[in-house]
Amino acid sequence: MSSLSPSPDDHALARSLADFVTERALLFPGERPLVALSGGTDSCALLLLLCEAAALGLLPQPAGVAHFHHGMRGQDADADAGFCAALATRGGLSCVIGLGALANANEAEAREARYAFLQEAAQELGADVIATAHHADDQAETVLMRVFRGTSVSGLAGIPVRRGNIIRPLLFARRAQLEAYCAHHGVAVRHDPTNDNPRFPRRKVRTLLPELAESFNPRLTEALCRLSEHAAEDSAYLDMLAVEHRGTTDLRTLERPLRRRVILQRLWELTEGDAALREQLVTATWVARLEGLLVRGGTLNLPGDGWARVRQGSLVFAPQRQGPLLTDWRGELPVPGSVALLDQRSLSAVIAAPLPSPERQRRSLRVDCGTIPASLTVRTVRDGDRIAPLGMAGKTRLVRDLLREAKVPAELRASQLVVEAEGEILWVVGVAQAESTRVPEDATEVLLLEIHHEGP
Ligand SMILES: Nc1ncnc2c1ncn2[C@@H]1O[C@H](COP(=O)(O)OP(=O)(O)OP(=O)(O)O)[C@@H](O)[C@H]1O
Protein backbone atom coordinates (compact mmCIF):
# COMPACT_ATOMS: atom_id res chain seq x y z
CA MET A 1 0.00 0.00 0.00
CA SER A 2 1.43 3.37 -0.90
CA SER A 3 1.74 6.23 1.53
CA LEU A 4 0.63 9.37 -0.22
CA SER A 5 2.80 12.36 0.52
CA PRO A 6 0.90 15.31 2.03
CA SER A 7 1.38 17.23 -1.19
CA PRO A 8 -0.20 15.33 -4.09
CA ASP A 9 1.60 17.43 -6.70
CA ASP A 10 4.86 15.49 -6.41
CA HIS A 11 3.34 12.75 -8.59
CA ALA A 12 3.56 10.27 -5.69
CA LEU A 13 0.28 8.56 -6.48
CA ALA A 14 0.99 8.34 -10.22
CA ARG A 15 4.38 6.83 -9.44
CA SER A 16 2.81 4.29 -7.08
CA LEU A 17 0.33 3.40 -9.81
CA ALA A 18 3.14 2.87 -12.33
CA ASP A 19 5.07 0.73 -9.81
CA PHE A 20 1.99 -1.39 -9.11
CA VAL A 21 1.26 -1.87 -12.82
CA THR A 22 4.87 -2.85 -13.49
CA GLU A 23 5.27 -5.18 -10.48
CA ARG A 24 2.06 -7.01 -11.32
CA ALA A 25 2.82 -7.05 -15.04
CA LEU A 26 -0.61 -5.58 -15.76
CA LEU A 27 0.59 -4.06 -19.03
CA PHE A 28 3.00 -5.86 -21.31
CA PRO A 29 5.29 -3.75 -23.48
CA GLY A 30 3.31 -1.92 -26.14
CA GLU A 31 -0.07 -2.61 -24.48
CA ARG A 32 -2.50 0.27 -23.94
CA PRO A 33 -5.45 0.32 -21.56
CA LEU A 34 -9.00 1.49 -22.08
CA VAL A 35 -10.23 3.42 -19.04
CA ALA A 36 -13.69 2.37 -17.82
CA LEU A 37 -15.05 5.69 -16.64
CA SER A 38 -18.26 5.88 -14.59
CA GLY A 39 -17.71 9.53 -13.70
CA GLY A 40 -17.33 8.77 -9.96
CA THR A 41 -14.27 9.67 -7.89
CA ASP A 42 -12.44 6.37 -8.38
CA SER A 43 -12.54 6.12 -12.14
CA CYS A 44 -11.89 9.87 -12.60
CA ALA A 45 -8.78 9.44 -10.46
CA LEU A 46 -7.80 6.38 -12.51
CA LEU A 47 -8.08 8.32 -15.75
CA LEU A 48 -6.10 11.30 -14.50
CA LEU A 49 -3.45 9.14 -12.85
CA LEU A 50 -2.92 7.03 -15.98
CA CYS A 51 -2.58 10.23 -18.02
CA GLU A 52 -0.16 11.63 -15.44
CA ALA A 53 1.93 8.45 -15.44
CA ALA A 54 1.98 8.58 -19.26
CA ALA A 55 3.08 12.22 -19.21
CA LEU A 56 5.92 11.21 -16.86
CA GLY A 57 6.91 8.50 -19.33
CA LEU A 58 6.19 5.77 -16.76
CA LEU A 59 3.28 4.11 -18.57
CA PRO A 60 1.85 4.19 -22.11
CA GLN A 61 -0.89 6.67 -22.92
CA PRO A 62 -4.37 5.09 -22.53
CA ALA A 63 -6.03 4.06 -25.80
CA GLY A 64 -9.20 5.88 -24.80
CA VAL A 65 -12.13 6.11 -22.42
CA ALA A 66 -15.45 4.26 -22.37
CA HIS A 67 -18.59 5.13 -20.45
CA PHE A 68 -21.75 3.02 -20.33
CA HIS A 69 -25.08 4.80 -19.94
CA HIS A 70 -27.24 1.99 -18.56
CA GLY A 71 -30.47 3.72 -19.52
CA MET A 72 -31.67 3.30 -15.93
CA ARG A 73 -31.43 6.71 -14.24
CA GLY A 74 -32.78 9.38 -16.58
CA GLN A 75 -31.33 12.89 -16.73
CA ASP A 76 -28.66 12.38 -14.12
CA ALA A 77 -27.21 9.59 -16.20
CA ASP A 78 -27.30 11.80 -19.33
CA ALA A 79 -25.25 14.35 -17.42
CA ASP A 80 -22.79 11.59 -16.32
CA ALA A 81 -22.20 10.68 -19.95
CA GLY A 82 -21.59 14.33 -20.92
CA PHE A 83 -19.20 14.73 -18.01
CA CYS A 84 -17.21 11.63 -18.98
CA ALA A 85 -16.90 12.75 -22.60
CA ALA A 86 -15.64 16.16 -21.42
CA LEU A 87 -13.10 14.64 -19.00
CA ALA A 88 -11.76 12.37 -21.75
CA THR A 89 -11.32 15.42 -24.01
CA ARG A 90 -9.50 17.20 -21.21
CA GLY A 91 -7.06 14.26 -21.13
CA GLY A 92 -6.73 14.38 -24.94
CA LEU A 93 -8.40 10.97 -25.32
CA SER A 94 -11.20 9.55 -27.47
CA CYS A 95 -14.35 8.55 -25.63
CA VAL A 96 -16.93 5.92 -26.56
CA ILE A 97 -20.35 6.22 -24.92
CA GLY A 98 -22.54 3.12 -24.88
CA LEU A 99 -26.29 3.32 -24.38
CA GLY A 100 -28.20 0.46 -22.78
CA ALA A 101 -31.94 0.04 -22.30
CA LEU A 102 -31.86 -1.62 -18.90
CA ALA A 103 -34.72 0.11 -17.11
CA ASN A 104 -35.85 -3.12 -15.48
CA ALA A 105 -32.51 -4.88 -15.17
CA ASN A 106 -31.06 -6.19 -11.93
CA GLU A 107 -27.49 -5.55 -10.81
CA ALA A 108 -26.05 -8.68 -12.42
CA GLU A 109 -27.72 -7.95 -15.77
CA ALA A 110 -26.50 -4.36 -15.68
CA ARG A 111 -22.96 -5.53 -14.95
CA GLU A 112 -23.05 -8.09 -17.76
CA ALA A 113 -24.23 -5.46 -20.26
CA ARG A 114 -21.59 -3.00 -19.03
CA TYR A 115 -18.72 -5.44 -19.44
CA ALA A 116 -19.96 -6.54 -22.87
CA PHE A 117 -19.98 -2.89 -23.95
CA LEU A 118 -16.49 -2.30 -22.48
CA GLN A 119 -15.16 -5.21 -24.53
CA GLU A 120 -16.64 -3.73 -27.72
CA ALA A 121 -15.28 -0.29 -26.89
CA ALA A 122 -11.81 -1.75 -26.28
CA GLN A 123 -11.89 -3.28 -29.76
CA GLU A 124 -13.12 -0.06 -31.30
CA LEU A 125 -10.35 1.99 -29.71
CA GLY A 126 -7.63 -0.59 -30.24
CA ALA A 127 -7.05 -1.09 -26.50
CA ASP A 128 -5.38 -4.26 -25.25
CA VAL A 129 -6.81 -4.28 -21.74
CA ILE A 130 -9.68 -2.63 -19.85
CA ALA A 131 -8.78 -0.81 -16.63
CA THR A 132 -11.44 -0.42 -13.93
CA ALA A 133 -11.01 1.66 -10.80
CA HIS A 134 -11.57 -0.84 -7.98
CA HIS A 135 -9.39 0.15 -5.05
CA ALA A 136 -8.17 -1.18 -1.69
CA ASP A 137 -11.33 -0.22 0.21
CA ASP A 138 -13.47 -2.00 -2.41
CA GLN A 139 -11.25 -5.03 -1.93
CA ALA A 140 -11.52 -5.01 1.88
CA GLU A 141 -15.31 -4.59 1.68
CA THR A 142 -15.59 -7.44 -0.81
CA VAL A 143 -13.54 -9.79 1.36
CA LEU A 144 -15.49 -8.91 4.50
CA MET A 145 -18.84 -9.26 2.74
CA ARG A 146 -17.84 -12.70 1.52
CA VAL A 147 -16.69 -13.73 4.98
CA PHE A 148 -20.07 -12.69 6.39
CA ARG A 149 -21.96 -14.56 3.70
CA GLY A 150 -19.73 -17.63 3.75
CA THR A 151 -16.88 -18.19 1.35
CA SER A 152 -13.89 -20.32 0.38
CA VAL A 153 -10.20 -19.60 -0.16
CA SER A 154 -10.86 -18.56 -3.73
CA GLY A 155 -13.66 -16.27 -2.49
CA LEU A 156 -11.23 -14.67 -0.05
CA ALA A 157 -9.08 -13.71 -3.03
CA GLY A 158 -11.69 -10.99 -3.62
CA ILE A 159 -11.41 -8.77 -6.68
CA PRO A 160 -8.71 -10.15 -8.99
CA VAL A 161 -6.02 -7.71 -10.00
CA ARG A 162 -6.28 -9.20 -13.47
CA ARG A 163 -8.89 -11.46 -15.01
CA GLY A 164 -8.69 -12.01 -18.73
CA ASN A 165 -8.16 -8.57 -20.23
CA ILE A 166 -9.65 -6.69 -17.26
CA ILE A 167 -7.07 -5.08 -14.98
CA ARG A 168 -7.46 -3.25 -11.63
CA PRO A 169 -4.43 -0.97 -11.35
CA LEU A 170 -5.81 0.95 -8.36
CA LEU A 171 -6.08 -1.96 -5.94
CA PHE A 172 -3.05 -0.58 -4.10
CA ALA A 173 -4.74 2.78 -3.34
CA ARG A 174 -7.13 3.86 -0.60
CA ARG A 175 -10.43 5.58 -1.35
CA ALA A 176 -9.40 8.65 0.69
CA GLN A 177 -6.26 9.03 -1.44
CA LEU A 178 -8.33 9.06 -4.62
CA GLU A 179 -10.77 11.57 -3.16
CA ALA A 180 -7.90 13.85 -2.13
CA TYR A 181 -6.37 13.49 -5.57
CA CYS A 182 -9.58 14.46 -7.40
CA ALA A 183 -10.15 17.36 -5.05
CA HIS A 184 -6.59 18.57 -5.58
CA HIS A 185 -7.10 18.49 -9.35
CA GLY A 186 -10.41 20.32 -9.08
CA VAL A 187 -12.46 17.53 -10.68
CA ALA A 188 -16.12 17.91 -9.74
CA VAL A 189 -16.81 14.19 -9.88
CA ARG A 190 -20.30 12.80 -10.49
CA HIS A 191 -22.22 11.14 -7.71
CA ASP A 192 -24.49 8.12 -8.20
CA PRO A 193 -27.13 8.26 -5.41
CA THR A 194 -28.17 4.63 -5.98
CA ASN A 195 -24.94 3.61 -4.19
CA ASP A 196 -26.06 5.44 -1.03
CA ASN A 197 -28.95 3.14 -0.17
CA PRO A 198 -28.19 2.07 3.43
CA ARG A 199 -29.92 -1.27 2.76
CA PHE A 200 -27.25 -2.34 0.24
CA PRO A 201 -24.94 -4.91 1.85
CA ARG A 202 -21.87 -3.10 0.51
CA ARG A 203 -23.05 0.14 2.02
CA LYS A 204 -23.53 -1.58 5.37
CA VAL A 205 -20.05 -3.08 5.27
CA ARG A 206 -18.62 0.30 4.28
CA THR A 207 -20.13 1.79 7.44
CA LEU A 208 -19.02 -1.13 9.57
CA LEU A 209 -15.38 -1.31 8.48
CA PRO A 210 -14.16 1.83 10.28
CA GLU A 211 -15.93 0.67 13.46
CA LEU A 212 -14.24 -2.72 13.24
CA ALA A 213 -10.92 -1.03 12.51
CA GLU A 214 -11.28 1.09 15.60
CA SER A 215 -12.09 -1.90 17.81
CA PHE A 216 -9.65 -4.46 16.40
CA ASN A 217 -7.00 -3.16 14.05
CA PRO A 218 -6.44 0.37 12.73
CA ARG A 219 -4.93 -1.18 9.59
CA LEU A 220 -7.83 -3.55 9.02
CA THR A 221 -8.29 -2.56 5.37
CA GLU A 222 -4.63 -3.29 4.67
CA ALA A 223 -4.88 -6.58 6.58
CA LEU A 224 -7.89 -7.67 4.54
CA CYS A 225 -6.13 -6.69 1.30
CA ARG A 226 -3.07 -8.71 2.30
CA LEU A 227 -5.28 -11.67 3.12
CA SER A 228 -6.91 -11.40 -0.30
CA GLU A 229 -3.52 -11.29 -2.02
CA HIS A 230 -2.31 -14.40 -0.22
CA ALA A 231 -5.58 -16.17 -0.86
CA ALA A 232 -5.31 -15.24 -4.56
CA GLU A 233 -1.80 -16.71 -4.72
CA ASP A 234 -2.73 -19.90 -2.84
CA SER A 235 -5.80 -20.21 -4.99
CA ALA A 236 -3.85 -19.76 -8.24
CA TYR A 237 -1.44 -22.48 -7.09
CA LEU A 238 -4.31 -24.86 -6.33
CA ASP A 239 -5.88 -24.01 -9.69
CA MET A 240 -2.69 -25.01 -11.44
CA LEU A 241 -2.57 -28.33 -9.57
CA ALA A 242 -6.24 -28.93 -10.26
CA VAL A 243 -5.73 -28.45 -13.99
CA GLU A 244 -2.97 -31.06 -13.83
CA HIS A 245 -5.30 -33.48 -12.00
CA ARG A 246 -8.54 -32.82 -13.84
CA GLY A 247 -8.22 -36.09 -15.75
CA THR A 248 -8.19 -38.12 -12.49
CA THR A 249 -10.70 -40.91 -12.94
CA ASP A 250 -11.73 -41.27 -9.32
CA LEU A 251 -11.88 -37.84 -7.66
CA ARG A 252 -12.15 -39.51 -4.25
CA THR A 253 -8.47 -40.45 -4.50
CA LEU A 254 -7.42 -36.78 -4.51
CA GLU A 255 -6.51 -34.82 -1.37
CA ARG A 256 -9.54 -32.83 -0.24
CA PRO A 257 -8.29 -29.33 -1.14
CA LEU A 258 -7.43 -30.55 -4.62
CA ARG A 259 -10.68 -32.47 -5.01
CA ARG A 260 -12.65 -29.39 -4.02
CA ARG A 261 -10.71 -27.30 -6.51
CA VAL A 262 -11.34 -29.74 -9.36
CA ILE A 263 -15.07 -29.56 -8.51
CA LEU A 264 -14.92 -25.75 -8.43
CA GLN A 265 -13.32 -25.68 -11.87
CA ARG A 266 -15.98 -28.03 -13.21
CA LEU A 267 -18.69 -25.70 -11.86
CA TRP A 268 -16.96 -22.74 -13.42
CA GLU A 269 -16.93 -24.45 -16.82
CA LEU A 270 -20.51 -25.62 -16.41
CA THR A 271 -21.76 -22.07 -15.87
CA GLU A 272 -19.85 -20.50 -18.77
CA GLY A 273 -22.00 -17.82 -20.38
CA ASP A 274 -24.63 -17.79 -17.61
CA ALA A 275 -23.64 -15.13 -15.07
CA ALA A 276 -26.72 -15.57 -12.89
CA LEU A 277 -26.25 -19.34 -12.62
CA ARG A 278 -22.53 -18.86 -11.98
CA GLU A 279 -23.31 -16.63 -9.02
CA GLN A 280 -25.57 -19.29 -7.57
CA LEU A 281 -23.53 -22.36 -8.32
CA VAL A 282 -19.86 -21.45 -8.07
CA THR A 283 -19.96 -21.30 -4.29
CA ALA A 284 -18.38 -23.09 -1.35
CA THR A 285 -21.81 -24.52 -0.49
CA TRP A 286 -22.22 -26.23 -3.85
CA VAL A 287 -18.66 -27.50 -3.86
CA ALA A 288 -19.34 -29.06 -0.44
CA ARG A 289 -22.62 -30.58 -1.66
CA LEU A 290 -20.95 -32.12 -4.69
CA GLU A 291 -18.11 -33.38 -2.55
CA GLY A 292 -20.73 -35.06 -0.36
CA LEU A 293 -22.33 -36.53 -3.45
CA LEU A 294 -19.01 -38.10 -4.45
CA VAL A 295 -18.91 -39.94 -1.16
CA ARG A 296 -22.61 -40.75 -0.91
CA GLY A 297 -23.41 -41.42 -4.54
CA GLY A 298 -26.78 -40.69 -6.12
CA THR A 299 -27.99 -37.60 -7.90
CA LEU A 300 -28.16 -33.95 -6.97
CA ASN A 301 -30.40 -31.38 -8.62
CA LEU A 302 -28.60 -28.15 -9.37
CA PRO A 303 -30.08 -24.66 -9.48
CA GLY A 304 -31.20 -23.82 -12.98
CA ASP A 305 -32.55 -27.32 -13.50
CA GLY A 306 -29.38 -29.20 -14.30
CA TRP A 307 -28.28 -32.13 -12.19
CA ALA A 308 -25.13 -33.95 -11.19
CA ARG A 309 -24.52 -37.62 -10.72
CA VAL A 310 -21.61 -39.78 -9.64
CA ARG A 311 -20.22 -42.40 -11.94
CA GLN A 312 -17.30 -44.45 -10.68
CA GLY A 313 -15.96 -41.67 -8.53
CA SER A 314 -16.26 -38.92 -11.11
CA LEU A 315 -18.96 -36.29 -11.47
CA VAL A 316 -21.27 -36.28 -14.47
CA PHE A 317 -23.21 -33.09 -15.08
CA ALA A 318 -26.40 -33.04 -17.09
CA PRO A 319 -27.52 -29.92 -18.90
CA GLN A 320 -30.52 -27.86 -17.93
CA ARG A 321 -33.79 -29.53 -18.62
CA GLN A 322 -36.14 -27.96 -21.08
CA GLY A 323 -39.89 -27.96 -21.19
CA PRO A 324 -42.79 -26.42 -19.35
CA LEU A 325 -43.21 -26.49 -15.61
CA LEU A 326 -45.58 -29.22 -14.64
CA THR A 327 -47.70 -28.29 -11.71
CA ASP A 328 -50.52 -30.70 -11.69
CA TRP A 329 -49.32 -33.71 -13.50
CA ARG A 330 -51.76 -36.49 -14.18
CA GLY A 331 -50.63 -39.59 -15.94
CA GLU A 332 -52.51 -42.56 -17.23
CA LEU A 333 -51.43 -45.44 -15.10
CA PRO A 334 -50.68 -48.29 -15.27
CA VAL A 335 -51.79 -51.54 -16.49
CA PRO A 336 -49.28 -53.97 -15.01
CA GLY A 337 -45.95 -53.57 -16.73
CA SER A 338 -46.52 -50.05 -18.07
CA VAL A 339 -44.47 -47.09 -16.95
CA ALA A 340 -45.02 -43.37 -16.54
CA LEU A 341 -42.42 -40.65 -16.31
CA LEU A 342 -42.74 -37.93 -13.75
CA ASP A 343 -40.87 -34.76 -14.44
CA GLN A 344 -39.40 -33.69 -11.14
CA ARG A 345 -39.90 -30.01 -11.95
CA SER A 346 -43.35 -30.49 -10.59
CA LEU A 347 -43.49 -29.78 -6.89
CA SER A 348 -46.62 -31.78 -6.54
CA ALA A 349 -46.95 -34.67 -8.87
CA VAL A 350 -50.22 -36.54 -8.90
CA ILE A 351 -50.30 -39.99 -10.29
CA ALA A 352 -53.81 -41.16 -11.10
CA ALA A 353 -53.69 -44.88 -10.91
CA PRO A 354 -55.81 -47.88 -10.06
CA LEU A 355 -54.34 -49.02 -6.81
CA PRO A 356 -54.50 -52.52 -5.52
CA SER A 357 -55.68 -51.68 -2.05
CA PRO A 358 -56.00 -47.97 -1.56
CA GLU A 359 -57.34 -48.15 1.94
CA ARG A 360 -54.21 -49.91 3.13
CA GLN A 361 -51.67 -47.75 1.40
CA ARG A 362 -49.93 -44.57 2.38
CA ARG A 363 -50.31 -42.75 -0.86
CA SER A 364 -48.09 -39.74 -0.55
CA LEU A 365 -44.39 -39.34 -0.11
CA ARG A 366 -42.25 -36.27 0.42
CA VAL A 367 -38.82 -36.31 -1.14
CA ASP A 368 -36.00 -33.77 -1.14
CA CYS A 369 -35.81 -32.07 -4.53
CA GLY A 370 -32.15 -31.47 -3.88
CA THR A 371 -31.26 -35.13 -4.01
CA ILE A 372 -33.68 -36.89 -6.30
CA PRO A 373 -32.95 -37.17 -10.00
CA ALA A 374 -34.47 -35.41 -12.94
CA SER A 375 -37.15 -37.93 -13.72
CA LEU A 376 -38.94 -40.66 -11.89
CA THR A 377 -40.49 -43.77 -13.31
CA VAL A 378 -43.68 -45.19 -11.91
CA ARG A 379 -44.20 -48.82 -12.78
CA THR A 380 -45.42 -52.07 -11.38
CA VAL A 381 -43.13 -54.28 -9.39
CA ARG A 382 -40.80 -56.70 -11.15
CA ASP A 383 -39.13 -59.88 -10.00
CA GLY A 384 -35.84 -59.13 -8.30
CA ASP A 385 -36.71 -55.50 -7.42
CA ARG A 386 -34.84 -54.41 -4.30
CA ILE A 387 -35.05 -51.34 -2.08
CA ALA A 388 -32.80 -49.97 0.67
CA PRO A 389 -35.57 -49.08 3.16
CA LEU A 390 -35.46 -46.11 5.48
CA GLY A 391 -33.54 -46.74 8.69
CA MET A 392 -31.77 -49.89 7.52
CA ALA A 393 -28.34 -48.36 6.98
CA GLY A 394 -28.35 -48.98 3.25
CA LYS A 395 -29.14 -52.72 3.51
CA THR A 396 -31.38 -53.76 0.63
CA ARG A 397 -34.46 -56.00 0.76
CA LEU A 398 -36.42 -57.80 -1.93
CA VAL A 399 -39.62 -55.86 -2.63
CA ARG A 400 -41.58 -59.10 -2.85
CA ASP A 401 -40.51 -60.00 0.70
CA LEU A 402 -41.62 -56.58 1.94
CA LEU A 403 -45.01 -57.01 0.26
CA ARG A 404 -45.45 -60.37 1.90
CA GLU A 405 -44.48 -58.99 5.31
CA ALA A 406 -46.90 -56.05 4.79
CA LYS A 407 -49.61 -58.68 4.15
CA VAL A 408 -50.45 -57.39 0.67
CA PRO A 409 -52.67 -60.20 -0.72
CA ALA A 410 -50.75 -62.42 -3.14
CA GLU A 411 -53.15 -61.75 -6.03
CA LEU A 412 -52.54 -57.98 -5.75
CA ARG A 413 -48.77 -58.06 -5.52
CA ALA A 414 -48.23 -58.11 -9.30
CA SER A 415 -49.95 -54.73 -9.66
CA GLN A 416 -48.06 -53.15 -6.78
CA LEU A 417 -46.65 -49.77 -7.83
CA VAL A 418 -43.08 -48.72 -7.31
CA VAL A 419 -41.39 -45.39 -8.04
CA GLU A 420 -37.94 -45.75 -9.48
CA ALA A 421 -35.12 -43.32 -10.25
CA GLU A 422 -32.20 -44.38 -12.35
CA GLY A 423 -32.46 -48.00 -11.38
CA GLU A 424 -33.03 -47.33 -7.68
CA ILE A 425 -36.42 -48.06 -6.14
CA LEU A 426 -37.35 -45.01 -4.07
CA TRP A 427 -40.82 -45.99 -2.99
CA VAL A 428 -42.86 -49.13 -2.83
CA VAL A 429 -46.14 -47.26 -2.71
CA GLY A 430 -47.76 -47.56 0.68
CA VAL A 431 -45.26 -50.11 1.89
CA ALA A 432 -41.71 -48.75 2.10
CA GLN A 433 -39.61 -45.77 1.16
CA ALA A 434 -35.90 -45.74 0.47
CA GLU A 435 -33.31 -44.26 2.81
CA SER A 436 -32.31 -41.89 -0.02
CA THR A 437 -35.73 -40.20 0.10
CA ARG A 438 -35.27 -39.04 3.68
CA VAL A 439 -35.92 -35.28 3.74
CA PRO A 440 -33.07 -33.50 5.52
CA GLU A 441 -33.80 -30.59 7.82
CA ASP A 442 -32.15 -28.12 5.49
CA ALA A 443 -34.11 -29.19 2.40
CA THR A 444 -35.30 -26.14 0.52
CA GLU A 445 -37.69 -27.73 -1.97
CA VAL A 446 -39.72 -30.77 -1.25
CA LEU A 447 -41.55 -32.75 -3.89
CA LEU A 448 -44.84 -34.21 -2.78
CA LEU A 449 -45.63 -37.36 -4.70
CA GLU A 450 -49.20 -38.50 -4.47
CA ILE A 451 -50.78 -41.64 -5.80
CA HIS A 452 -54.51 -41.27 -6.33
CA HIS A 453 -56.83 -44.17 -6.60
CA GLU A 454 -58.91 -44.06 -9.76
CA GLY A 455 -60.94 -46.83 -11.24
CA PRO A 456 -62.31 -49.95 -9.63
N1 LIG B 1 -21.22 3.13 -16.25
C1 LIG B 1 -19.94 2.80 -16.33
N2 LIG B 1 -19.23 2.99 -17.45
C2 LIG B 1 -17.94 2.65 -17.54
N3 LIG B 1 -17.27 2.07 -16.51
C3 LIG B 1 -17.91 1.86 -15.37
C4 LIG B 1 -19.29 2.19 -15.21
N4 LIG B 1 -19.68 1.84 -13.97
C5 LIG B 1 -18.60 1.32 -13.38
N5 LIG B 1 -17.53 1.32 -14.20
C6 LIG B 1 -16.16 0.84 -13.90
O1 LIG B 1 -16.23 -0.21 -12.95
C7 LIG B 1 -15.60 0.18 -11.74
C8 LIG B 1 -16.37 -0.39 -10.57
O2 LIG B 1 -17.64 0.18 -10.54
P1 LIG B 1 -18.66 -0.13 -9.39
O3 LIG B 1 -17.94 -0.09 -8.09
O4 LIG B 1 -19.85 0.75 -9.59
O5 LIG B 1 -19.11 -1.56 -9.80
P2 LIG B 1 -19.14 -2.88 -8.94
O6 LIG B 1 -20.45 -3.48 -9.19
O7 LIG B 1 -18.73 -2.61 -7.53
O8 LIG B 1 -17.96 -3.66 -9.63
P3 LIG B 1 -18.01 -4.54 -10.93
O9 LIG B 1 -19.33 -4.28 -11.58
O10 LIG B 1 -16.87 -4.02 -11.80
O11 LIG B 1 -17.78 -5.93 -10.45
C9 LIG B 1 -15.61 1.70 -11.79
O12 LIG B 1 -14.60 2.24 -10.97
C10 LIG B 1 -15.36 1.96 -13.26
O13 LIG B 1 -14.00 1.80 -13.59
UniProtKB/TrEMBL annotation:
- The chain's coiled-coil residues are none
**Key words, A-Z:** ATP-binding, Cytoplasm, Ligase, Nucleotide-binding, tRNA processing
Biological process (GO) annotations? tRNA modification
Q: Which GO terms describe its cellular component?
A: cytoplasm
Top-level taxon in the UniProt lineage: Bacteria
- Entry binding sites for ATP: 38-43
Q: Where is the Lysidine-tRNA(Ile) synthetase C-terminal domain?
A: 376-449
Q: Which InterPro entries has this protein been placed in?
A: Lysidine-tRNA-synth_C, Rossmann-like_a/b/a_fold, TilS/TtcA_N, tRNA_Ile_lys_synt, tRNA_Ile_lys_synt_N
**Which family is annotated?**
Belongs to the tRNA(Ile)-lysidine synthase family.
NCBIfam families documented for this protein? lysidine_TilS_C, lysidine_TilS_N
**Domain characteristics, as noted in the entry:** The N-terminal region contains the highly conserved SGGXDS motif, predicted to be a P-loop motif involved in ATP binding.
Q: What does this protein do?
A: Ligates lysine onto the cytidine present at position 34 of the AUA codon-specific tRNA(Ile) that contains the anticodon CAU, in an ATP-dependent manner. Cytidine is converted to lysidine, thus changing the amino acid specificity of the tRNA from methionine to isoleucine.
What protein does this entry describe?
Answer: tRNA(Ile)-lysidine synthase
Organism, per UniProt?
A: Armatimonas rosea
